[in-house]
Known about the structure:
By secondary structure, the protein is α+β, with helices and mostly antiparallel strands. It has one domain (3-122): Alpha-Beta Complex (Aspartate Aminotransferase, domain 1). The chain is 38% helix and 28% strand. It has helices spanning 8-22, 69-77, 83-91, 105-122; strands at residues 27-34, 39-46, 49-57, 60-66, 94-99. Helix 2 packs antiparallel against helix 3 (83-91). It is globular and about 40 Å long.
Amino acid sequence: MIADRVYPQTWSLFQALRTRMRQLKGVSMKVLYEKHSSESTPAFFYEGRQLYHLHLRGGEMSATFHTDFKSRLRLTENQAIDWRLRDEIRKRTWAGFAFQSSKDLGPFMELVKAKYQIIAEEAGGKPREERPIAF
């Protein structure tokens, strides 16, 4: 279980990110088994395509963001995304991002939302609206 291997602060950060992902309609979370680390890793998918997966251990949380060539080009040209994130995904079809606090989630979520929009457009539908957070 993920909660058993992370510090409370990291667990709270994971919960905050998961809450933001739940706002995006059609996004699902699956827990995958990673052979190299022999640990389960939460991964987020939309329309059958992986957006990213998380690495959680102790006080550390990081994400490996996935993209294909075509969407990578569109994402690197999107000026609304922080230039540091665009620079990371420009290099290859995956990029790693570390999270220290909830402040780091905002720029990362802009990148995720941009990829979400691209996938929605490619799926033939118009971009879906975000769901409100339930309290």
